[in-house]
């Protein structure tokens, strides 16, 4: 965990925000907004060279012990589906995400809103998130991330249409909202919401809430916390299980996410993330289609589905998933339509169930060679993508990429390359000893 000291931010909007909290009896905390410098991210494109990245985070104003509550947000400061029912009623089909995003748009327009000090501190843009990338960058996302990004874009569109329809159905006069306004609000909710566990279990789309102060805390996989709604105190609390010294950045943990998930949902990556992996589903299914006949492919897919081993084939820097090896061991079984195949499938099931380690040395060798072939293709793809991205700003100067968007995308491919290369080293060693 980064132990660098921060510098307190003296910002008019933040000072108004803190005054607003104090005037409305928000519980005091040992946190303040600060700038932190980190040499974890180095931009090395031809037109931009930045060795130190300045980022905002919450700094400890005095020592914090493990077990302390670092933020306590009273119910009155939580924007939830339940609190919004007083404004929009309950007789609608909008999800909690949809209604919170709609409400943010309307709060942004209301210059006299009680919430204005909080709204003024929300991000102005989300240009480092893949959903905001220009098409030329989206086209260079890893295939799984590209598919999820396009789905997220579609989710925003359908949610916007649902909210537009809802506004039109209300008796109160409300000016139409634009797609751009709603996208901004939707992404605010997506990147900053917390998940409630003790309130309104009937909420459609999950019990989520916006919580001032809490949403300024940054993420690291090393942070250990307890969080939840304290019914007795009527507050949402976060308790740190890590101690902090005065001046250090205080973190929370968003969950066990790899950098692809973090980039899609929050618009950044971690310089070191133990959860990183490379998903090889597309490559595995392509290999199945190349090796098997149409009927053989159907049979083996049914076997995988029946055993619960269809998809989710991944590698990490120091691990090849059991699911991946199960799929390749099955693919390495010859003679799908020949006598004796059922017996070989039973041997495969024995390995899947942990009753034996190998089907046979020959089967294991074939499976490892298949994985080696897949990794070589992915390594080549990653190398090509990095080469393309290194010159993409010169090729598409009109696209106006956010520098960190491009950096983060290159970081994703670099991490994939490193994981695949480490796997290839392991496979070369393993095959040489078989």
From TrEMBL:
Q: Which UniProt keywords apply?
A: Methyltransferase, S-adenosyl-L-methionine, Transferase
The answer, when asked if S-adenosyl-L-methionine is one of the entry's keywords, is yes
> Which terms in the Gene Ontology molecular function aspect does this entry carry?
protein-lysine N-methyltransferase activity
| One Pfam family here | Rubis-subs-bind
* Ranges of residues in domain SET: 29-255
One GO-annotated biological process of the protein: methylation
Query: From what superkingdom does this record's organism come?
Result: Eukaryota
Protein name per its UniProtKB record = SET domain-containing protein
